[in-house]
Amino acid sequence: QPVANLREWGQVAANSDAFLIATTMDYWKLLMGQAPLPEQNAEFQNLWKRLKSQHNYRVAKMLHELVRTEAYGAP
């Protein structure tokens, strides 16, 4: 989408789903050692979607949720 300046570009980029997916993927790989496996994809999708909505872009809250996932090993 067209933007007027660099600041606006940064806002558009940071608010995009692609940014949220990439951010969540970076932390997922850091904690899990690899990208989500096919059977972990639903948990991954939930994480990045809630990062935008429920967690209001707060990575710390997303990380707390990540370590409570079945993929991470939570019961």
Key descriptive features of the protein:
about 80 residues; mainly alpha; single chain; about 60% helix; elongated
Report on this structure.
By secondary structure, the protein is mainly alpha-helical. Helices cover 60% and strands 0% of the residues. The protein has helices at residues 6-14, 17-32, 41-52, 59-66. The longest helix has 16 residues, at 17-32. The protein is elongated, with a radius of gyration of 14 Å. The model has no long low-confidence stretch (mean pLDDT 93).
Beta content comes to: under 5%
Rough shape?
A: elongated
Label the structural class: mainly alpha
* Largest β sheet strand count, sense and barrel closure: none
Uncertain segments are none
Query: What is the number of helices?
Result: 4
> How many E-type strands?
0
What is the string of helix and strand elements? Answer: HHHH
pLDDT averaged residue by residue: 93
The CA-CA distance between the termini, in Å, is 43 Å
Write the layout of secondary structure elements.
Layout lengths: L5 H9 L2 H16 L8 H12 L6 H8 L9
Helix pairs in contact: 2-3, 2-4, 3-4
Summarize the structure.
The chain has 75 residues and is mainly alpha-helical. Helix content is 60%, strand content 0%. The chain has helices at residues 6-14, 17-32, 41-52, 59-66.
